[in-house]
């Protein structure tokens, strides 16, 4: 499949999530509904939102645990959510790329011919 468009959705580090685009991207018109697009972004944002469990609070307060912890990103959870979203978007010939390839600054939505 050949990539027709790449839409870059920036990540807002102040709110710790992927920000919405003010306008619905023109390349998506006729391919996907606005609500489906927003739901996909919300699912991805749910991974980036901080989860305040007791273990996470202890890890945040302990520099030793932080230094020995291997997985410091959201890769495992995010991978699972992206696979689920991309399976749904496959009908529309679209997919989200993993944000680790852009150093978590944005997520790229690929639209195929």
Structure, briefly:
By secondary structure, this protein is of the alpha+beta class.
Q: How would you sum up the major sheet?
A: 4 strands, antiparallel
Uncertain runs: none
User: Helical segment tally?
Assistant: 4
Whole-number count of domains: 1
Q: Helix fraction?
A: 25-40%
State the oligomer.
single chain
Per DSSP, what share of the residues sits in E-state strands of 2 or more residues?
Answer: 15-25%
What order do the helices and strands follow? EEHHHHEE
Keywords: Membrane
Main location: membrane
Subcellular location: Membrane
Organism: Vairimorpha ceranae
Give the SSE layout.
Elements: E1 3-12, E2 17-18, H1 34-48, H2 54-61, H3 63-68, H4 75-89, E3 94-96, E4 106-112
Antiparallel strand pairs: 1-2, 1-4, 3-4
Describe this protein with a few key phrases.
single chain; 113 residues; alpha+beta; four-stranded antiparallel beta sheet; 19% strand; elongated
């Amino acid at each position: 499949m050949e990539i027709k468009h790449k839409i870059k959705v920036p990540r807002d580090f102040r709110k710790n999530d992927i920000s919405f685009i003010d306008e619905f991207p023109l390349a998506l018109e006729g391919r996907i509904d606005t609500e489906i697009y927003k739901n996909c972004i919300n699912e991805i944002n749910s991974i980036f939102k901080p989860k305040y469990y007791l273990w996470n609070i202890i890890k945040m307060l302990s520099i030793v645990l932080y230094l020995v912890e291997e997985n410091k990103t959201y890769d495992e959870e995010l991978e699972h959510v992206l696979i689920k979203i991309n399976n749904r978007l496959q009908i529309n010939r679209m997919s989200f790329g993993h944000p680790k390839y852009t150093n978590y600054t944005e997520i790229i939505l690929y639209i195929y011919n």
